[in-house]
Design a protein that fits this description.
Layout lengths: L1 E10 L2 E7 L4 E5 L6 H13 L19 E8 L4 E9 L2 E6 L2 E3 L11 E4 L4 H5 L2 H15 L3 H25 L5 H41 L4 E6 L7 H14 L1 H7 L10 E6 L2 E2 H4 L2 H23 L4 E5 L7 H9 L7 E5 L3 H6 L2 E8 L2 E4 L1
Parallel strand pairs: 3-13, 3-14, 8-12, 12-13
Antiparallel strand pairs: 1-2, 1-4, 4-5, 5-6, 6-7, 9-10, 10-11, 14-15
Helix pairs in contact: 3-5, 4-5, 4-7, 5-6, 5-9
The structure holds adenosine-5'-triphosphate (ATP) and magnesium ion.
The site of magnesium ion has 5 residues, from helix 1.
Length: 367
């Protein structure tokens, strides 16, 4: 999969840019705060309709402007697509091949990316939400319908929580049949999500071990899915969630929120059996985060039959030279790589550079 053209207008500090991109390595150089990450963020937005740095889309619009626009042309061996995102405050228009997309989920899979960013450290050491998001975004890029499933689940959860709260306020049980309905929805949708996540973790495990060993050579990394629900198939997990919801209804009403389901699950990451978030050194955490992203990229490539576009922002410079070198050798030559760098010399030594751009105060020029 290849991103051949990228257009950005009023995107963060980038007034206007039209870039032609080639296979292999493309480097964006420039000093701090010039717009390098903003470019990668734009590419990430084309793939996922979301920024990795903010949930508030209006922040992506250039200060003093009313709209922002990003467009990408994507070529994979058999087809090519045009993806566009237009932003206005409170409004977003997504298009693929000039057709407006009503569902965000329909955008996923057109351009697939794996973004390596400093924020990835949060996957390893942050709250469970970061880990769930990492996993969900990975699955969403390879499984059509998964984004919709997540949205339906969130809606069902909201409705159930509303009923829980009104039960608590009224102290009556007249709404219990309604709760039965939402229990079933939450359990059924939750069962499908949990099953998909368990499958993905099962596949990521061996790939992650390989990448971590390749980067660090020492400890053995393990990844696991942590949930109160049991079972493997969606049906088994649905039954298990339903049992949990029914058994803990009382405490759910007291709290006014749902205590069981995939929104409460977590992913465990251990080194030699110990949680990396608790016992891992800085370097071990960084290596774990990098290995997770490398694994995501490989899984996407294997499952979709095409390597994703890799976006590498800064992360590697916090590692020693040797680990940096190992990192590059773990990325196959046929991947398209968009990399930011304040100093590009080392990169140029690593592999052939297909293009280099200099970024200065939001202007991007071939270097
Ligand atoms: N909506 C916006 N409108 C205009 N400028 C913005 C907007 N959002 C962020 N910026 C500015 O964009 C600049 C460049 O940000 P970016 O994160 O891309 O820098 P960078 O080149 O990656 O720097 P570093 O090497 O420090 O990571 C920042 O100075 C920031 O203040
Ligand atoms: Mg940056």
């Amino acid at each position: 999969m290849l991103l051949t053209h990228l257009r950005l207008i009023h995107w963060r500090n980038i007034e206007s840019a039209a870039l032609e991109l080639r296979p292999g390595l493309t480097v964006f150089t420039g000093q701090n705060a010039q717009g390098k990450t903003n470019i990668l963020e734009g590419v990430h937005y084309l793939a996922t309709a979301s920024s990795h740095r903010t949930r508030r889309d209006h922040e992506l619009i250039q200060w003093g402007e009313l709209t922002a626009y990003v467009r990408g042309e994507i070529v994979d061996p058999t087809t090519s697509h045009l993806v566009e995102c237009g932003l206005e405050p409170g409004k977003r228009l997504l298009k693929r091949d000039a057709q407006p997309l009503t569902r965000v989920g329909d955008l996923y899979g057109t351009l697939r990316v794996a973004l390596f960013a400093p924020e990835d450290l949060e996957i390893v050491q942050g709250s469970p939400e970061h880990r769930r998001r990492f996993l969900d975004m990975t699955i969403a890029q390879m499984q059509a319908g998964y984004v919709r499933l997540l949205q339906q689940y969130r809606r069902a959860l909201r409705q159930r929580n509303q009923v829980l709260r009104s039960l608590k306020m009224n102290g009556s049980h007249s709404e219990v049949p309604q709760l039965d309905v939402w229990d079933r929805s939450v359990a059924e949708l939750g069962g499908q999500i949990t099953a998909a996540r368990r499958v993905a973790i099962g596949k990521l495990g061996p790939i992650l071990r390989e990448h971590y060993r390749g980067l660090a050579e020492r400890e053995a990394v393990e990844i696991g899915y942590e949930s109160r629900s049991e079972g493997v198939s969606p049906v088994e997990i649905t039954d298990s969630i339903l049992d949990l919801l029914r058994a803990h209804r009382h405490s759910d009403v007291e709290r006014g929120s749902t205590g069981y389901g995939p929104h409460r699950d977590d992913i465990t990451i251990t080194l030699d059996g110990r949680p990396v978030a608790v016992f891992g050194s800085q370097g071990q955490r960084r290596t774990s985060a990098l290995a997770l992203r490398l694994s995501e990229a490989q899984l996407l490539a294997e499952e979709c039959g095409e390597p994703p576009v890799l976006l590498v922002d800064d992360v590697i410079y916090e590692m020693d030279r040797e680990r940096r070198g190992r990192f590059w050798t773990r990325i196959p030559e046929n991947y398209q790589l968009l990399v930011t760098a304040t100093d590009h010399r080392e990169l140029a030594a690593t592999r052939e550079c297909g293009g280099m751009f200099h970024v200065e105060n939001g202007s991007i020029h071939p270097a």
